[in-house]
Structure formats: C-alpha cells, structure tokens
Amino acid sequence: MTTGVMRLDPLTGRLMLALLALAALVLGMPALKPLFAALYPALDRPLYEAETFLTLTLDHMALVGASSLIAVAAGGLAGIAVTRPWGAEFRGLLEAVATMGQTFPPVAVLALAVPSIGFGPLPALIALSLYALLPVVRNTIAGLEGVSDAVRESARGLGMGPWETLFRVELPLAAPVILAGVRTAVIVNTGTAAIASTVGAKTLGLPIIVGLNGSNQAYVIQGALIVGALALVLDAGFERLAAWSVRWRTEG
To answer: How far apart are alpha carbons 207 and 25 in whole angstroms?
Structure first.
C-alpha cells in the first residue's frame, strides 16, 4: 500500500533547500531590517535599499550567465579544435592564453578595459569571460582525450565520419568532464561578478562595496549572504545535472 508521500533523492533535496534559502533571502531581506537594526544599533540605515535585492540578483545572474556562455562557447569550440589533427599545433597557444586569462586578476582587466570601453557591464563581461575560459578549455581537452582510441575505431568501423564520431560518441562520453569545467567556471564567476560593481555594473556586489566604503557591515553581510546562496543553488544544480548525465549514459 502506497502512502502517497513523494520522496526526493538527496541531490534534488539539496537543490530545493538551496532554492528556498535563496528565495527567502532575496524576497525576505526587508523583513530582516529589525534584526540588522538590533545587531548594528549605530547604523542609521541597517538595510540596503538603493536597489531591491531581487533586481540585483537578476542583474547578477544575467552577467554571470552571459559571461559563462561566452566562455563555454569559445572555450568548448577551441578545446574541440585543438584535439582535432588539423588544430593540434595551436594547443600550446590556446592553453597559454587560457592560463593567462585566469592568472590575470579580473580587477586588472577591469582597470585596463574601463579607459577604452567606459563604465558599465561590458568591461565586467570581458573580464569574467576571460577568467572562466581556463576550466572550460582544460576540461574539454581532458574529456575528449579521455575517450579511448578503441572507441573511436569502433565508431569508424560502424561507418561514422569524423564529425559524426565527435557528436555521437566523443562529446557524450566526455560530457561529465566537460560539465565539471563548466561548473567550476560558473561558480567562480558567481563570486567574482561581485567586483563588477566597481565599474558601474549592477550586481550583488553593490551592497558589499557600498558597505565597505561606508563602514556598514550590515550591507556587506546582506550582499554576501545572497551571493553565497546563489552559488549554492548553482552548485547543487550542476551536481544534479552531473548525476543525471551519468545515469543517462549508463541507461543509454
């Protein structure tokens, strides 16, 4: 006899808890104003109210999403290219550029980009895209190189051409490793995007930066809590996606 109670697996449960925590913080932060007023009685304005936290969260997610998509598209295509015979000679150059993109601090990229591009989200988009490039490139190459030659030979034996082998065999087998690189890029960008507010981009870094400049610790905590909750949601989502991809490969 069934009880009618739906049981969630641990990964789905973790994702739902993270989503609930994020929603509670984003939508319910104004309700915490008395708490912050009690914790910081010396502050005239214990709650950041220049922008709604919902607006800041959506803008933050848009910047992270756009920069991550650029990094995934550019890094993925470049990683595929250098694992093909016709692009192998460019592998060293690609890895050097990708490593330089992450070694060079995003703050430095912002400082160099602002004089020529101006303030706003564009210099932040460039900095974050470069910063997220390395894990995508590295994992794309590692994932594709992890496919054994025997598997490729089997695909050719079935009459598959180079591109059909890539899309029907190599990429599906390399997907978990590539996905791990994308996960790293997105999570890193989620935290790093907070500094984009230093050049005029609207992100969850605004209350943090305003709080640091004005010695308002309450603002810093409010921005940091939501950035952390957003990172947890994305991490749990990628963990769930990785588990699904493994199960799909096993069952498929």
So the answer is: 14
